[in-house]
Amino acid sequence: MELFLVSFGALFSIMNPLGTVPVFVGLTMEHSKKERAVTAFWTSLDALIILLLSFFAGKYILSFFGISLTALKIAGGLIIASSGFALLTGKFKEHKGMKRERVQQDIQTREAIALTPLAIPMLAGPGTISLLITYNQEFQAPHQICTILGALVVVSVLIYIILKSSHYIVKFLGASGINALSRVIGFIVIAIGVEYIIGSVIDIIKTLGIV
To answer: To which H or E segment does residue 68 belong?
Structure first.
């Protein structure tokens, strides 16, 4: 249960589906309720597929590029912390490459927006992918893998529910409410990134025999 809560909390915070709500609303403004539900479903499914590929293919990616787990954790920690800082400063969309001009262009030109820009890079970005690759290396027992997979499924279901209800969430919370929540989540995400960096530095120190 502890692993489930930790992995679920980290994934939900880093993916930040609440931060995707304004983008989803903007891209589906002219869609019917049924069309928005379909888009939300495919977005959550695409995100789940990307998460599963990241988790199970992680060790092969590390092996192919000759990257150590410690190096990945430090790089991932930096990416995660930078995502949290973007949330904290209200620049999450710019950090994900979703400038207002691009959003407006997508509204006019995209027919299928579930995979990109919603699933990638808004939800399953570099921070999420690096986190899952790290999980793949750290937790290899069958029960641990099943626990993390359960967390992935639950996060994906919540993404679907949140995006499907995005127009109601915007009406209820308003832009200021969503921004406030994003900043709180951003602080948590920064702490997760810093924790990964600290843990990696401690591992390096132990390896060198300094402590």
So the answer is: none
